[in-house]
Amino acid sequence: QVQFVESGGGLVQPGGSLRLSCAASGSIFSIGTMAWYRQAPGKQRELVAAISSGGGRIDYADSVKVRFTISRGNAKNTVYLKMNSLKPDDTAVYYCNTLPSYYSWGQGTQVTVSS
User: Fold this and answer.
1) Torsions phi, psi of 90, nearest 5?
2) Low-confidence stretches of the chain (pLDDT beneath 70)
3) In whole angstroms, what is the distance from residue 107 CA to residue 95 CA?
4) 6 pairs with which residues across the strands?
């Protein structure tokens, strides 16, 4: 019964920045790892970044290391993704979910990096 709502996407020039937000609603019976995923046109969905419940362990895909920062809000149902130095290859629909992705996918938020 958990639903995810992503926001913050948009059109940005290469080298620009965006901050994505995710809010989960419903019942989460056990708090675990939260993650951001993305799916580019014609490609499979891939894991971008993950953060443990307490924030003590954070992992990034090699393609976004240094440039992206994942964080959790004070509320346990919120997670953020700060994206800097965006590249055209970052263009995708971005989703949040748990890791593993136990719950249904939300609508995602579109990120388009183009001049």
Assistant:
1) -80, -10
2) 28-31, 76
3) 7
4) 22
